[in-house]
From TrEMBL:
<feature type="domain" description="Carbohydrate kinase PfkB">
    <location>
        <begin position="6"/>
        <end position="314"/>
    </location>
</feature>
<dbReference type="InterPro" id="IPR029056">
    <property type="entry name" value="Ribokinase-like"/>
</dbReference>
<dbReference type="InterPro" id="IPR011611">
    <property type="entry name" value="PfkB_dom"/>
</dbReference>
<dbReference type="GO" id="GO:0016301">
    <property type="term" value="F:kinase activity"/>
</dbReference>
<keyword id="KW-0808">Transferase</keyword>
<dbReference type="Pfam" id="PF00294">
    <property type="entry name" value="PfkB"/>
</dbReference>
<dbReference type="GO" id="GO:0005829">
    <property type="term" value="C:cytosol"/>
</dbReference>
<protein>
    <submittedName>
        <fullName>Sugar or nucleoside kinase, ribokinase family</fullName>
    </submittedName>
</protein>
<keyword id="KW-0418">Kinase</keyword>
Amino acid sequence: MSGGIAVAGTIAVDEIKVVERYPDKTELTTISDIKRSLGGAVANCSLALSKIDATLPIETLCILGEDEKGQYIYNHLKQHKNIDVSKINFKNTTPFTDVIQDKNDKTRTFYHFKGNASLFNEHTIDFTKLNSKILHVAYLLLLDGLDQTDDQYGTKMALLLKKAQDHGVKTSIDIVSENQERYQKIVPPSLKYTNYCVINEYEAGKTAGIPLRNSKGDLLAANIKDVLKSLKSFGVKDWVIIHAPEGSFGFDGKDYYSLPSVKIHKDQIKGTVGAGDAYVAGVLYGAYLKFSIYEAMKLGTITAATSLCEEDSNSGILNFDCLMQEYQRYPKHEEIKI
């Protein structure tokens, strides 16, 4: 297999616990269901891409622990014939996330144990052995080894992405949503060596220093162009895409795009874990097929939408032809003018 998409960085086991309602501090709530699935960008994006195209060569680049959780992830990934697990390293303890999902509103809260994630650094990937056309690395702000400062490039993540581009590989990044003020320090250096920046509205606003939601949680549509332009100005080579529940918004350096989300009845939504990664996977597959940014956003939109129909991150995702049919079938929300 050669010439596909590589996914690198964060991988974990998701221990999903569905609760009757999310409690306040010191309160008790009842767990109604417990499930386990793969989590993190490497697992979520790789499996989503495999569902979209079972013939697409996918390389997984990550570090698993020498433990039961690491073996669980490895065994699951290697079941997919087009996912290459040969470059996975095994060290220390596998990261895991307790995903607490509210049964009523489907929102989820994450408690993450980083484990060996800090061991993933700028030396982990051997680019002389990489066969892919696109490398997706995630998540910034969660990979301690790559978030470190680099004297020449700003961060070790920026150095890693520069190495990839020097080897003729296009790069993609995603960010974790966290309630800290590190975005403007850690993210911009990487954008200079990024081809595809595909992030949500919270991460985009934090990185640009321009809010995209007000205190009531309403989307500030008037600020979207400024955020897109700001992110592109950091050096993103090809596409900047922001996805939100209301829709997604793109900028290719020339034109701005607004695409509404599809309408899904709340009874169809079984979980939202990994929906952002599903969106990214759809966009990356569009980039791989040399789609326009707008067509890639459509694929990202419907990939994310179908992922909501199951509790884990990828079981609901369909193959490419079916996804395109579903996109045409689903009604759409009103387009947001930007």
